[in-house]
Design goal:
Its main location: membrane. By secondary structure, the chain is mostly helical. It has one domain: Ammonium transporter fold. It is 66% helix and 0% strand. Helix 1 packs antiparallel against helix 2, helix 1 runs antiparallel to helix 8 and helix 14 packs antiparallel against helix 16. The relative contact order is 0.13.
Length: 452
C-alpha cells in the first residue's frame, strides 16, 4: 500500500469513508490525552472523593457523605451542559459572567475548541470535571448534618451563581484573566470551595454535640484508597490544563507530584515532632494541601520551587489547622467537618501567592502567549491578592445568600433526632448492613467447632 496518498485520492470513496478536510485541526494526540486527563479528574470525584468521604467520617454518616458527592457529580453535569458551561466560558454577558445557554448541539461540540487542537466536546467535559470536584470539595465542610434535600438545592444554585463567576472572571475572559495567574484552579476551585464550604458550615450549623467530640473514620484503609485516587488523578488535573501534549504538561505533572510528596512528609514530620506519632489522617491532609498549593502554578514554576511550595504547604496549613484553629474562637464557632478551609482555602491562597512569586515569564508565554501578563515576582503579588480577595468575598456573600434562600424552602440542617441516627434517618440504609445495629456477630469459636 502506498502511504503517500493525498486527500484528493480519496474522492472516489463513498462519502462516509472520506477523510474530513475540515477536521485537520484535530490533533489526535492532544485530543486523546485530553480525554484521558478528563477521566483522571473525574476519577478524583467518582470514586475518589466518594470513597474518601464515605470512609473518613463516622460509620453512621458513611452513606450520606458518599452520596452527597455522587449526587453532586451527576447534578453538576446536567447543569453544566444546559447552561453553566457558557456562563463560565461562553460569550461575554458582563465582566463577571458569560451568557447562559446550552451546549447540547452537535455543530458546537464537534467543531474546534477555543483552546487546543481538539473538538469542543473535549473542553466542555474537562471543565465539567473541574466544576464537579469543586462542589464536592465544598461538601467536605458540611458532612454529618446537612439536610440532603437542602444539598439537592444547594448544588445547582452554587454552581450557577458562584462557580461560574469565578471561572469566567479568571479563565473565561473576565476582568481578572489578564492579571491573575491561576494555572489550574488554586483560586477558581480550591479557594472558592474552602471559603464557600466554611461559609455554608456556618449557616447549616454544627454537627450533633457527640459527633463533633468523637468523629473517628470508619475505614482508614478505604480512606487511603480514596486519597490515592485523588493524588494520582491530579496528573490529569494539572497535566490537562495546557490542552496539548507539549512541554508544559509533563513539567506540571512532575511538579505536582514532587510538591505533594514533600508536603505529605513535612506534615507527617510535624505530627511526629509535636504529637510523637505519625497520623495517617494527617498524612492525607498534607497530601491534599500539597496538591492544592501547586495547582495555581504547576506548569509555570521550576521543580525547586515546587519543592519549596511543598514545604510551606505541609507546614502553614498544618499550623492553621492544628494550632490556630484550636486557639481561635472564630474557627471554633464554625464546624468545618473535614477542615476544608485549611486544606483548600489556606493552601489555595498560599499557592496563588507563591505562583505569582515563582512563575517564570518564559513558561507563562509558552502557556498563554499574549493572553496574560508575564509580570512575575513581587510586582505580581498585588494582582494575585486582588484575585484572591474577589474570589473570597464573592463566595462568602453569594454562599450566604444561597443558604438563606434555601432555608425558606427547607431546613438546612437535619432534625436533632435524625442527627443521632445518621444514614438510617437520611436514606434508610447503612454502610455496613451485615453487622448493623441490632445484630450480633456469632462467636468464631462456635463456628469453628461446628465445621470441625
Amino acid at each position: 500500500m502506498n502511504y503517500t496518498t493525498t486527500l484528493s485520492n480519496f474522492s472516489s470513496l463513498p462519502e462516509g469513508l472520506r477523510p474530513d478536510p475540515e477536521a485537520e485541526w484535530n490533533n489526535k494526540g492532544d485530543s486523546a490525552w485530553q480525554l484521558i486527563a478528563t477521566t483522571l479528574v473525574g476519577l478524583q470525584s467518582v470514586p475518589g472523593l466518594v470513597i474518601l468521604y464515605g470512609s473518613m467520617v463516622k460509620k453512621k454518616w458513611a452513606v450520606n457523605s458518599a452520596f452527597m458527592a455522587l449526587y453532586a457529580f451527576a447534578m453538576v453535569l446536567v447543569c453544566w451542559v444546559l447552561w453553566a458551561h457558557n456562563m463560565a466560558f461562553g460569550n461575554k454577558f458582563t465582566q463577571l459572567v458569560g451568557k447562559p445557554s446550552s451546549v447540547l448541539s452537535e455543530k458546537f461540540l464537534v467543531n474546534q475548541s477555543t483552546y487546543g487542537l481538539m473538538p469542543m466536546a473535549n473542553y466542555v467535559f474537562y471543565q465539567f470535571a473541574f466544576a464537579a470536584i469543586t462542589v464536592i470539595l465544598l461538601a467536605g465542610s458540611l458532612l454529618g448534618r446537612m439536610n440532603f434535600y437542602a444539598w439537592m438545592l444547594f448544588v445547582p444554585l452554587w454552581l450557577t451563581l458562584s462557580y461560574t463567576i469565578g471561572a469566567y472572571t479568571i479563565w473565561g475572559g473576565g476582568f481578572l484573566e489578564k492579571r491573575t495567574i491561576d494555572y489550574a484552579g488554586g483560586f477558581v476551585i480550591h479557594l472558592s470551595s474552602g471559603v464557600a464550604g466554611f461559609t455554608a458550615a456556618y449557616w447549616v450549623g454544627p454537627r450533633h454535640t457527640h459527633d463533633r467530640q468523637l468523629f473517628p473514620p470508619n475505614n482508614i484503609i478505604h480512606m487511603l484508597g480514596g486519597a490515592g485516587f485523588l493524588w494520582l488523578g491530579w496528573t490529569g488535573f494539572n497535566g490537562g490544563a495546557p490542552f496539548e501534549v507539549g512541554r508544559i504538561a509533563p513539567l506540571a505533572i512532575l511538579n505536582t507530584h514532587v510538591c505533594t510528596a514533600t508536603s505529605l512528609l513535612v506534615w507527617q514530620s510535624l505530627d511526629m515532632i509535636v504529637y510523637k506519632k505519625s497520623s495517617v489522617i494527617g498524612a492525607v491532609q498534607g497530601m491534599i494541601t500539597g496538591l492544592v498549593c501547586i495547582t495555581p502554578g504547576a506548569g509555570l514554576v521550576d521543580p525547586w520551587a515546587a519543592v519549596f511550595m511543598g514545604a510551606l504547604s505541609g507546614s502553614v496549613p498544618w499550623y492553621t489547622m492544628m494550632v490556630l484553629h484550636k486557639k481561635s474562637a472564630f474557627f471554633q464557632s464554625v464546624d468545618d467537618t473535614l477542615g476544608v478551609f485549611h486544606t483548600h482555602a489556606v493552601a489555595g491562597i498560599l499557592g496563588g501567592v507563591l505562583s505569582g512569586l515563582f512563575a517564570k515569564p518564559n513558561l507563562l508565554r509558552m502557556m498563554y502567549g499574549q493572553k496574560v501578563s508575564t509580570i512575575t515576582g513581587f510586582k505580581q503579588l498585588g494582582n494575585q491578592l486582588i484575585g484572591a480577595a474577589f474570589i473570597t468575598v464573592w463566595n462568602a456573600v453569594v454562599t450566604s445568600l444561597i443558604c438563606i434562600f434555601i432555608s425558606y424552602i427547607v431546613n438546612l440542617r437535619m432534625k436533632e433526632d435524625d442527627l443521632e441516627v445518621g444514614d438510617g434517618a437520611a436514606h434508610g440504609e447503612e454502610a455496613y448492613a451485615l453487622w448493623g445495629d441490632g445484630e450480633k456477630m456469632p462467636k468464631i469459636t462456635s463456628i469453628f467447632r461446628r465445621v470441625v
